[in-house]
Specification:
Blueprint: H1 2-20, H2 30-39, H3 44-61, H4 68-86, H5 92-116, H6 126-150
């Protein structure tokens, strides 16, 4: 039930941000936050398929290629699991590094799909990626903190 409410909140906030966020500025990736929130504290066999399905939902809601966000979120969840095994992902710097690892894996997945399909890469500036990461990081840390406060 909590996961369904989190999905509905993510859909509402994504719609709100798309209407209010300045054009041309990278918005926070709320679906990445939701995938990492769901993956934290759950086994691989639950978190990875859910991350893939969230990415497919994000692809269906947008106008991009089907499977682009699904691959990105799948790799992000996998990297988050890998980083969480080596770091304490629920606390301070460990959570930040686990998010950074997942964020970079998400973009690696995007570029992997673009390379595989022989697409022209969009002109992305490193500043755009940095801003998206900086806008998404506090939301991810907040989501992990709220989930950690409710974990048994």
């Amino acid at each position: 039930m909590t996961a369904l409410l989190a999905l509905l909140l993510t859909l509402f906030l994504a719609g709100l941000l798309s209407a209010l966020w300045p054009q041309g500025l990278m918005a926070p990736d709320l679906f990445l936050v939701l995938a990492l929130w769901y993956a934290w504290g759950r086994p691989y066999y639950l978190g990875l398929p859910v991350a893939f399905l969230l990415g497919l939902l994000q692809d269906l809601l947008g106008y991009g290629l089907l499977g682009l966000h699904a691959t990105g979120l799948l790799l992000a969840a996998y990297a988050f699991y890998a980083a969480s095994r080596r770091l304490v992902a629920g606390e301070g710097l460990g959570a930040s590094f686990a998010f950074l690892w997942a964020f970079l894996a998400k973009w690696f997945g995007y570029f992997l799909v673009a390379y595989w399909l022989r697409l022209d890469l969009p002109p992305l500036l490193p500043l755009d990626l940095l801003l998206e990461g900086l806008f998404t990081l506090p939301l991810a840390l907040l989501a992990l903190r709220l989930k950690g406060a409710r974990a048994p």
